Amino acid sequence: MRPRRKPGGTTSAAPARADGQIRQSQLVTTFGPGAMVDLVDRAVVIGGLDHWAWPDGKWVALDDARLRRSLLPRLRALHPDLDLANSDYFRKPPEGEMRDASPSIGVRALEVPKWFVCQGCHRLARAGDQFELHKNRYRHQCAGNKVSRAVPVRFVAACARGHLMDFPWRPFVHRERKEEICDRPDLRLEEGATGDLARIRVRCMNCGASQSMASARAPLYPCDGDRPWLGGRGANEDCDQKLELLVRTASDAYFSQVVSALRLPPAEESQLSRRVREHEVWKLVQKVKSVEQLQMLVDLQDTLAGAFKGYEPPAVLAAIEAHRSESAEQTERPLRTVEFERIVSAPDEQPGNEPDVGCQFAAFRVPSSRIDLPPGVRGLIVIPEMREIRVQVSFSRLDSISRNLQGEFEFERVKHKPAALMLPTGNQKWLPAAEVRGEGIFLELDEDAVQAWERRPAVLARATLLMQAYEAEGRGEFPGVRFYLLHTLSHLLLTAISLECGYAASAIRERIYSHPCARPGEAAMAAVLLGTGTTGSEGTLGGLVEEGRHVRHHLREAWDLGRLCSNDPVCAAHDPSHASSDRRSEGAACHGCLYIAECSCEWQNRFLDRALLVPTIGNDPELAFFKERP
């Protein structure tokens, strides 16, 4: 900190300002641990969970027992020693003070890369070797005593396992030199007018060696296993991968693996059970084993006295035991299956239905007598109160990792396991999380109609074509033609309803429920949930639920949107199996018709095909689930 002069000759330190700020919800997605961020004067990597700190150690817990049980086996697939605590295992990221920053509060970041480029003479060197730190900025004294600013080099090196390090500039520029690295390397980074790698060269002014950055595309050097976001004893691990050139701000520099689940309290939960589940109450009573212990705590703790007022101690103890036995379960049914069953079993909406104050989830089926549904649609369920918990589990670089249809990651099946957010043997047994409060509409298709559509010869042929194209890409298990139908319906309906519900399309998020046939413990599913929400306390205002009641009108608008694309007939005739196709996972789909904002789509605008939902130019009308306008 810089001293500040006070009147009278005394000095005081000026408050330190933070170098940057990120929204708390972004620390669970785009800028989680291990992500690279550009600040005003330098570039950093967000620190791992060991580098997160809360004022007075008081964090906000967002625990959800169902999601914890689902994540435990997946964490252990990353490393057998990874675990989650019994409580406080999901935590909201800490808040930092922008105007009076303290390194001990908030999220610490570590400087990466350490190599900088002079903006005047283009010298390339480590910051501490050639550049001077002045007023929190690096500068370089070029020839002629000209002082120029130095900025972080935009290239780093990474491997498929998420490791990150400075690009090996000195070995790279001298790699064709018989004598290897010269005795006094003096590097320059010469860039052309464009960002083309072929026009960027690294040159050693001492020996004259040079290399085009285009030759760095091929993996040349073994990875050292650097993990700068963890630091300390976790900074390195053994790695058998090759390093690849990576642009710090490229879209493949960071992929966060985020798992989400709707908060679903037990069916017909009593008021007493809800009180026991409250975080502050459960922390006090989770170890209670007898009525005597409970009574002693109630006498000592005002929180418990108020929570259990009017309830007999044996009933309270029974509720504690029930919650404890539920939390102790080691296995969990698939996330989406449980949510689907809860939503479709929602009671009919009655006049005056209002969610209870403080409830986390409320859903009501709109009676068929009060809604006009087209053939093929089984029902509409409105969800005026909905909370979703989103948890980051890991991250990867260079390539993303696909989820299964339940929204869960199967790390044991991936070729390269992603990077963990904490040390397996460390003290951090929690994961960063965000809670979204909002509303939604749930549209369920008729299962008999979907199965009849799946058996059509034209649909079977289309499914074979899509599957062959997808398998040629080699990216996991084919999701099935049912999923293409639901995903396409979701995108078109989201676009149509956003025009009238008061929310932008980018503010609405999809959730797909797809399962082709019933298995033990799993139900056949064919439904989409469109929801909107915010991490703030106010939630949303009800516009989506109210517009959702006019679902037939919006389905007609969606049908019209899907019939014709501005890129037709090229879009409608797209063959994903063709050797020249760059969209192996899509049928009739492009930016002109189906693609939506990345924050709205769960599947990165993949697995889409208009021809399976509505009649399109040049395709067999038998492909369309809605052959006629709804």
Please report which band the strand proportion falls in: under 5%, 5-15%, 15-25%, 25-35%, 35-45% or over 45%: 15-25%
Main beta sheet = 8 strands, mixed
**Count of alpha and pi helical runs:** 14
**Overall morphology:** globular
Count of beta strands:
26
Uncertain runs = 1-12
Class by helix and strand content?
alpha+beta
Radius of gyration: 28 Å
Give the helix proportion (percent range): 10-25%
Please outline what is shown here:
22% of the residues lie in helices and 21% in strands. It is α+β, with helices and mostly antiparallel strands and 630 residues long.
How would you describe what is shown here?
The protein is α+β, with helices and mostly antiparallel strands and 630 residues long. Among the domains are: 60 residues, no CATH class; 282 residues, no CATH class. Strands 6, 20, 21, 22, 23, 24, 25 and 26 form an eight-stranded mixed β-sheet that branches. Strands 11-12-13-9-10-16-17-18 form an eight-stranded antiparallel β-sheet. The chain has a three-stranded antiparallel β-sheet with strand order 3-4-8, with no helix packed on it. β11 and β12 form a beta hairpin. α4 packs across α8. The protein is globular.
Furnish the topology, listing elements before pairings.
Elements: E1 3-5, E2 11-13, E3 36-38, E4 43-46, E5 52-53, H1 65-78, E6 90-91, E7 106-107, E8 109-111, E9 115-118, E10 123-126, H2 127-130, E11 132-134, E12 137-141, E13 147-152, E14 155-158, E15 164-165, H3 169-173, E16 187-190, E17 201-204, E18 210-212, E19 244-247, E20 255-262, H4 271-277, H5 279-285, H6 291-300, H7 302-307, H8 313-327, H9 335-344, E21 361-365, E22 377-396, E23 419-420, E24 431-445, H10 447-454, H11 457-473, H12 481-498, E25 508-515, E26 525-534, H13 543-548, H14 551-563
Parallel strand pairs: 6-24
Antiparallel strand pairs: 1-2, 3-4, 4-8, 5-7, 9-10, 9-13, 10-16, 11-12, 12-13, 14-15, 14-19, 16-17, 17-18, 20-22, 21-22, 22-23, 22-24, 24-26, 25-26
